Amino acid sequence: MSDVRGERTLNYPIPAPAALEPPPEWTELRERCPVAPVTLPSGDEASLVTRYEDVRSVLADPRFTRELNAPGAARIIDTESGGLFNSPVANILAAEGHQRWRRMVGKWFTARRMAALRPAIETMADRLIDEMLAHGQPADLVTHLAFPLPVWVICDMLGVPEGERDSFAHWSDVTLSLTEYTEAEIDAAQAAFTAYLTQLVDGKRAHPGDDLLGELIAATDAEGTPMSDAALVATAQALLVAGHETTASMIAKMVAMLLADRRHWERLLADRSLVRTAVEEVLRYDPNGGFGIPRYLHEDAEIAGGVVPSGTTVICSMAAANRDESAFAGAGELDPGRSPNPHLAFGAGAHSCLGQPLARTELQAVLDVLLRRLPTLDLASGADELRRVEGLVVGRLREVPVRW
Predict the structure, then answer these.
(1) Per-residue pLDDT tens for 344-358?
(2) Side-chain half-sphere of 279: how many Cα atoms within 13 Å?
(3) In percent, how much of the chain has pLDDT > 90?
(4) Mean pLDDT for the chain overall
(5) Hey, which residues does 142 pair with through a beta bridge?
């Protein structure tokens, strides 16, 4: 079989023409070069997968591993560790055994627990909207709602004291950096973040609470073995970063996408039962989904009818796959009523996002509250004036100015 990689190498992530538009290269890659060579921010080469079925297949195939610190694996960024995906946190959690870790932590992220959290999430959203209304219009939805709500939720779940949450934004940005920070800045932020969370875990061990960290400290696996202290700290760090950063970014993008063509907002106002499907659709439609999921291949494998050789680092672009016309009719159009909607925004298979029940609960709660409180909500600038934050693993908008 022939190698299916194309002839020209793109720089990755691929820039987009506007904040709410996908890179035009996605369509060409899916049609003509479904496993494309790309150059990462580190300068190393990887192979980019953009078709829906191929991305789903790679994420479910155990031959494509999380071993991004393997000799010969591409580094994402030009630092000693190579970036978020093979950072000390990732390596500590891998050493715990990924499935064991998921079983221990996943007990917290059940649909029943998330449903129990929803009233408190809605109450906090109401409070933040009150403060935004007091601020006056126009207001930045990122500053007033999209960022502070998920920070409050995940910190409350982990038992982080109210007055100790201000540093998380900086620590998260540095942790998620592709090109924004130097190696020295990344190392300093990681050290400060780890020191804070080590102190937090020590405090929880001395004075256990009914929060997630308190439960994990007391928990054991099927063999009666508790989670190591290093893994508890790494878990707290992973959940604080993933638990607020991606959801904060998605709240802002969700509102921007639904208001960019206000007929979508009007449709939801007329039929609030569409909130659940609308959330799934903005997750699918998101053109600014971030870096994607990297995997390392230890043996030759076939993708899209060709052989990808052992030693290749593969990047799965879920955002590109979610725009694949072969999987979604009218993939380039946002349809708040789309159902079924088997999108890949949370990944697929055994390694799909652990926190997706929480993310869905927060997104649905925020959208419900906004529709109830601010039916006249609209963008205070043109959608083409919105700007992305570049250089991070996650896809984020700088601001979403709104009026009502």
Answers:
(1) 999 998 778 888 999
(2) 21
(3) 64
(4) 91
(5) none
Structure tokens given for 183: 């190696």
Q: What are the C-alpha distances in Å from 138 to residues 197, 268, 368, 400, 401?
A: 37, 22, 21, 10, 6
Q: What pTM, to 2 d.p., does this model score? A: 0.92
| Residue 108: CATH number of its domain | 1.10.630.10
Beta bridge partners, 45, equal 39
> What are φ and ψ of residue 188, in 5° steps?
-65, -45
Q: Two tokens at 247?
A: 């959801």
Determine, yes or no, domain membership for 2. Answer: no
Does residue 158 sit within a domain? Answer: yes
Q: Say if strands 401-403 and 378-379 run parallel, antiparallel, or are unpaired.
A: antiparallel
How far CA 149 is from CA of 129, 329, 397, 401, in Å, comes to 10, 34, 16, 17
| Alpha-carbon separation of residue 234 from 41, 188, 229 (angstroms) | 25, 16, 9
Q: Is residue 111 part of a domain?
A: yes
Domain hosting 288: range is 10-403
Residue 4: inside a domain = no
DSSP 306: E
In the chain, how many domains are there? 1
Cα distance between residue 98 and residue 351, in whole Å: 9
